């Protein structure tokens, strides 16, 4: 299902762990975000998808800020694995 082999390996590792963990939720949101951004490159005027993308981005940002407050090491590892930028707000 996932085209990137590195992400599929992470997905299999995370699936064996707790599916409700913060890392797994951030991983799922990141996959949704990437899928929606590729969709919006083709359909620029799909405003409902843009709204959904903003909601998912906000949810992921809240989870990442929670994780950075609770466990900075796990936060740094997750950021590097998913290849996303660190938030400016702390």
TrEMBL record:
Coiled coil: none annotated. GO terms for cellular component: cytoplasm; ribonucleoprotein complex; ribosome. GO terms for molecular function: structural constituent of ribosome. Keywords: Chloroplast, Plastid, Ribonucleoprotein, Ribosomal protein. Pfam families: Ribosomal_S15 (PF00312). The keyword Chloroplast applies. GO terms for biological process: translation. Part of the 30S ribosomal subunit. Belongs to the universal ribosomal protein uS15 family. This is 30S ribosomal protein S15. It comes from Pistacia vera. The gene is rps15.
